[in-house]
UniProtKB/TrEMBL annotation:
InterPro entries: Fe-S_cluster_assembly_SufBD, SUF_FeS_clus_asmbl_SufBD_core, SUF_FeS_clus_asmbl_SufBD_sf, SUF_FeS_clus_asmbl_SufD. It comes from Parafrankia colletiae. Belongs to the iron-sulfur cluster assembly SufBD family. It holds the Pfam family SUFBD_core. This is Fe-S cluster assembly protein SufD. Residues 22-32 have a biased composition (Basic and acidic residues). It comes from the Bacteria. SUPFAM superfamilies: Stabilizer of iron transporter SufD. Residues 123-351 form the SUF system FeS cluster assembly SufBD core domain. Signal peptide: none annotated. GO terms for biological process: iron-sulfur cluster assembly. The lineage of its organism: Bacteria, Bacillati, Actinomycetota, Actinomycetes, Frankiales. Residues 1-32 are annotated as: Disordered. Residues 8-20 have a biased composition (Low complexity).
Length: 381
């Protein structure tokens, strides 16, 4: 936690990493060498050229299933709505926005109350691909939007989400890629006055997945809850880097990410950054990361960061922990006649239940837990 001095700036700021450049021009972003704070955990050699923006040799197959009243359209690259929320902070995001040839737009009109989710399916068939997705909720609307990533690709994607004043959005991003996929993604959320965001990021597949969700508030009373679930298997690299930027007054945020790791070379990275600006009085924020290591050879890096530039906050804190199975829970279950392998599955299911049970789509909950079961069965856990 940063300590504030008489100037109103944390003393450590002078030696801190510089703020990232924000630009839609890829050439404004330096090519990382791996020592930069933003890239020090990422195995750059496994990015399959996405740092340099190779031309796409395929397209992501995008299909949208939406209830009546939802407008779905393909935007031209020159459409002014592109870039309304997201200004890229790294080269892959800039290339994704530049090479996506426009974007897929989903618009929920003001005051609409959707009873069925909007499902955006993105499927890769190999090769290099880019895509840009825009989601906009009008004032006082309520909706659930799901992004479902499957198949294989070297994929760089960007997502912009604009939530109108008083609106409520549940947003789910599911990364259920094939084992050889690479996914570099930037998700930007803009939360309106008295609006609510509940976001779920579920990462289960892919060779390398690196996602950067960010949240900003456009007015007081905004509320954002960011939940994450990831299962990192042998040789996989899964990286989630979050930024919640509190600059408006009386806003709230909660971040809860949980991950399980198994197998040699499994590597999970969680970075949680929360900034509370000098004018963001009344902020209430907390972030939590928990990692469960199931086998030897797996590694989890967890780095929560909190920067506070005002003393007038309701609450601000963070917590992080990485550990193995809860042996007491395992012993308790086995002492009641439950076989060891089934007991381990129950422990993992219980570990993830806090996240999964909050998803309001039964079919999606069942799919996520079935995939977790498949991962556990693969190594006999």
């Amino acid at each position: 936690m940063a300590v504030i001095d008489a100037t109103g700036r944390p003393p450590a700021q002078a030696g801190a990493a510089p703020r990232p450049v924000r630009s839609r021009d890829p050439e404004d972003h330096v090519v990382p060498g791996g020592r930069e704070e933003a890239w020090r955990f990422t195995p750059l050699r496994r990015l399959r050229g996405l740092l340099n923006g190779p031309p796409s040799d395929t397209k992501i197959d995008v299909s949208v299933a939406a209830p009546d009243g939802v407008e779905v359209e393909r935007l031209a690259a020159t459409d002014s709505r592109i870039g309304r929320v997201l200004t890229p902070a790294d080269r892959p995001a800039a290339f994704a926005m530049a090479r996506a040839d426009g974007g897929v737009s989903v618009t929920v009109p003001g005051e609409a109350a959707l009873t069925e989710p909007v499902i955006v399916r993105l499927h890769g068939d190999g090769g290099v691909a880019y895509e840009h997705v825009l989601v906009e909720l009008g004032p006082f609307a309520s909706a659930t939007v799901v992004l479902d990533h499957t198949g294989s690709a070297a994929f760089a994607g960007t997502v912009e989400v604009f939530i109108g004043h008083g609106a409520a959005l549940t947003f789910v991003s599911l990364q259920d890629w094939a084992d050889d996929a690479v996914h570099l993604g930037s998700h930007a959320f803009s939360v309106g006055r008295d609006a609510r965001l509940r976001s779920f990021t579920v990462t289960l597949g892919g060779d390398l997945v690196r996602l950067n969700p960010t949240v900003e508030y456009r007015g007081p009373g905004g509320d954002a809850e960011l939940y994450g679930l990831f299962f990192t298997d042998t040789g996989q690299h899964q990286e989630h880097r979050l930024l919640v930027d509190h600059q408006a007054r009386n806003c709230r945020s909660r971040v809860v990410y949980k991950g399980a790791l198994q197998g040699a070379g499994a590597h999970a990275v969680w970075i949680g950054d929360v900034v509370i600006g000098a004018d963001a009085v009344g902020t209430d924020t907390y972030e939590l990361n928990r990692n469960l290591v199931l086998t030897d050879g797996a590694r989890a890096d967890s780095v929560p960061n909190l920067e506070i530039l005002t003393g007038e906050v309701v609450g601000a804190g963070h917590a992080s922990a990485t550990g193995r199975f809860d042996d007491e829970s395992l012993f308790y279950l086995m002492s009641r006649g439950i076989p060891a392998d089934e007991a381990r599955r129950l422990v993992v299911r219980g570990f993830f239940a806090e996240i999964v049970d909050r998803i309001d789509i039964p079919e999606l909950r069942e799919r996520i837990m079935a995939r977790v079961e498949e991962e556990l069965a693969a190594v006999g856990v």
